[in-house]
Write a structure and sequence with these properties.
Number of domains: 2
Number of helices: 5
CATH topology of the largest domain: Immunoglobulin-like
Largest sheet: 4 strands, antiparallel
Shape: rod-shaped
Order of helices and strands: HEEEEEEEEHHHH
Distance between the termini: 99 Å
Number of strands: 8
Helix content: 25-40%
CATH superfamily of the largest domain: Immunoglobulins
CATH class of the largest domain: Mainly Beta
Bound molecules: heme C
CATH architecture of the largest domain: Sandwich
Strand order of the largest sheet: 1-3-6-5
Radius of gyration: 33 Å
């Protein structure tokens, strides 16, 4: 029995050391983040012994900012991978960062496309680019065109004419988007 005891002791001591080490190891959560560029995530740090050294493998992919002693913010700048290492006196933890390409913003419903769609009601008389048939619209500013449309819509100008009938059929926002469509075509 003596042999087992003396052989077992150093091993037992080593296990105890390991256990106490991991109890004090720096904790980082989460240990991996994935986000589209332009967004940011929070990383929580705990159980730091001594000073914490932070290294970022790819600052061009993700930038790291310290919020307070236990909070860091990581923001994606470009698609790619980065590895952030948090190292204190006793241990280190690596955080894997994956930044994906940012999701493109869908075109707004009142944007250029909608303007063109609404303006197609005018094409038969003013041409697709505002240069055909009746009065020329191309070359005017959006404010000018909108102003004229408002005059027709309010009945101030040619209340019984073709244009009044047309302008009255649209909401104010729609007239604005039609006007900016014609101002944008050349
Ligand atoms: C059926 C033909 C017709 C359609 C469709 C039409 N217009 Fe006209 N538009 C005219 C005519 C004709 C005039 C000339 C003057 C008038 O009636 O006072 C005119 C004049 C204008 C003017 C004033 C130009 C100026 O120099 O004074 C603007 C602005 C205008 N239209 C914009 C539009 C827009 C925008 C639309 C579509 C929402 C449209 N029009 C649809 C026939 C049309």
């Amino acid at each position: 029995m003596r042999e087992v005891n003396s052989a077992g002791r150093p091993w037992f001591v080593a296990m105890g050391l390991l256990a106490s080490c991991s109890a004090w190891a720096v904790t980082v959560s989460p240990e991996s983040v994935s986000m589209p560029s332009g967004e940011s995530r929070t990383i929580k740090i705990g159980k730091v012994s001594g000073t914490l050294a932070v290294t970022n493998s790819s600052p061009a992919v993700a930038s790291l900012t310290r919020v307070d002693a236990s909070t860091y913010r990581i923001s994606g700048s470009a698609a790619g991978k980065a590895e952030v290492k948090f190292k204190d006196a006793k241990s280190d933890v690596k955080v894997k960062v994956i930044v994906t390409a940012s999701t493109p913003t869908p075109p707004s419903p009142t944007g250029a496309l909608n303007g063109r769609l609404l303006a197609s009601n005018c094409f038969q008389c003013h041409g697709t680019s505002g240069t055909g048939g009746f009065d020329r619209l191309a070359g005017k500013s959006a404010t000018e065109i909108y102003g004229e449309l408002r005059e027709f819509a309010s009945g101030k100008e040619d209340a019984n004419g073709i244009m009044a009938a047309h302008a009255m059929g649209f909401s104010d926002a729609q007239l604005k988007s039609i006007a900016s469509y014609f101002a944008s075509v050349r």
